[in-house]
Design brief:
- The structure is a single chain.
- The chain is mainly α.
- It has 15 helices and two strands.
- A two-stranded antiparallel sheet has the order 1-2.
- The radius of gyration is 23 Å and the shape is globular.
Length: about 375
């Protein structure tokens, strides 16, 4: 309000007091200021998008033919840290641009200092790499590539033609981190070797992206088996990032149309059954849940993209980007179910209500 004494520089009448435990008076904690600081950091780190991260590791573990384990948990922790590092670094790198286009963002509005944002990015990167190292050298190598991609994107590549490809690479590596960490830690357990418990039963067929195996063949034990799933997630990320480059000014019909075509192609690939692969004999749970997860993915991402293509205004473009981010959860669930782990896919889908609740409080874009 214009007439607020605080805005006009007037001194407040008196500080609030509460009774102390000794019967006297003591200043009450400044709870509104604390909440404001927490709110500023929540906006800086875009916590509503954070729930799209754990599904990468779960999908990676399933695509590699393993059940989630200690390595998967370490990968989730590392991914969360590196994701938030990228968010903090993003706003630090864009602070001058945001001062013009988004003055309400935490740094240009003065609620978070540039130094604090940069320090947070560095600390979170170190924490992510430390967690990945606990899963073994292969996981640390993938996490290091992921961290390098995140920093390169925010500091150099974001506003170039390589921006969407760099972001897609980061998300691809994130899923591969889950596969690598899971396989590495299970293989290192005494008595387990490379024959860690598979995610699929002996009667469950392999996804079409993997080579055809007999009903008694073991599930894949190499992280490379997760590459097709990682590339699907990367393709979706590329499409959403290409649209996000127009969310401030709007005006692009081609970007949401291309993204819509890509999303439709990914959905069709999930439901396609190749003759001779045994896929018609999928487990009943997979046959039931995979179409449901795919439909949720298409609805969450395709509908706002269609609206943005028909009317490429900034609000509708931003809504399309937000839908594309939230659609990563059903996409991860579909990838997990398609790999023969429908229960894990249901666990991933359990994050959808949380994502919706957080999106109402903090924007994901």
């Amino acid at each position: 309000m214009i007439g607020s004494p605080r805005l006009l520089g007037a001194r407040p009448a008196a500080p609030p007091y509460s009774l102390s435990g000794a019967g006297g008076t003591a200043p009450a904690p400044d709870r509104p200021a604390t909440r404001a600081r927490l709110r500023a950091w929540a906006e800086l780190l875009r916590v509503s998008a954070l729930v799209t991260v754990p599904g990468d590791a779960l999908a990676g573990a399933a695509a590699a033919g393993r059940r989630p384990g200690r390595g998967t948990a370490l990968a989730v922790g590392a991914s969360l840290c590196l994701y938030e590092a990228g968010m903090a670094l993003n706003d630090w790198a864009d602070r001058e641009e945001d001062a013009v286009d988004r003055p309400h963002r935490p740094i240009p509005s003065g609620r978070v200092t540039p130094g604090a944002a940069l320090a947070a990015a560095a600390v979170l990167t170190g924490a992510g790499l430390a967690l990945a190292s606990r899963a073994g050298r292969p996981a640390l190598a993938v996490a290091s590539g992921l961290a390098a991609t995140v920093w390169a994107y925010d500091l150099r590549l974001k506003h170039t033609q390589l921006g969407p490809a760099a972001m897609a690479t980061a998300r691809t590596l994130d899923l591969m981190l889950g596969a690598t960490a899971t396989v590495a830690t299970m293989s290192a357990q005494p008595g387990r070797g490379g024959a860690a418990s598979p995610t699929r039963s002996a009667t469950a067929p392999a996804p079409s992206a993997a080579p055809t195996r007999s009903a008694t063949a073991p599930a894949p034990s190499a992280p490379s088996a997760a590459l097709p799933a990682a590339l699907a997630l990367g393709a979706h990320t590329y499409a959403v990032t290409a649209v996000s480059r127009h969310e401030v000014q709007g005006g692009s019909t081609a970007a949401p149309m291309a993204a819509l075509a890509g999303v439709a192609g990914i959905g069709a690939a999930f439901l396609r059954v190749r003759p001779g692969t045994g896929e018609p004999h999928r487990a009943p749970a997979v046959r039931l849940l995979l179409p449901a997860f795919t439909a949720a993915y298409l609805h969450t991402s395709a509908v706002p993209l269609l609206h943005a293509a028909l009317n490429p205004s900034p609000p509708l473009t931003q809504r399309a980007v937000g839908g594309g981010i939230r659609a990563m959860i059903p996409l991860q669930a579909a990838l997990t179910a398609r790999a023969g782990a429908p229960v894990d896919g249901l666990a991933v889908m359990g994050l959808v209500p949380l994502a919706r609740a957080l999106a109402r409080k903090v924007s994901a874009t």
